[in-house]
Design brief:
Elements (H helix, E strand, L loop, with lengths): L1 H13 L5 H9 L11 H15 L6 H12 L3 H4 L16 H26 L1
Helix pairs in contact: 1-2, 2-3
Amino acid sequence: MVEGTNTAMKILTGVGIESDVIVTVVRNHDHMDFNPTNNPTMEIVFGSVFDADHFRYGLEREDTFWRMKEKKGKTASEVIHDYQFLPAYTHAWKTSYGKKVGPKYIEFGLAIARHIEETFSV
């Protein structure tokens, strides 16, 4: 998130755009407890980015999970329990669409996790 913030500032400055909203959203896009209620524009942009970022924990989670872990050289047994953080995202959605559809994606991600754990625990 820090590197993304720096990159966003370079790009925006390079094209002559100053946007505290974009830089702040990039910096906080993964924080469930970030709540920009004092700024309606920030709330909409942050909610959209937060939800879009967290849809990867559903249908695409399996691929994302394994690609991330392969790069770090860890074995499946070392990373199986990384899925334990997913339930916290079940009701963390910020947009109306995320609140409606997001929990289903998380449940699917958890089903993948259970399947992988059962497969490697045999």
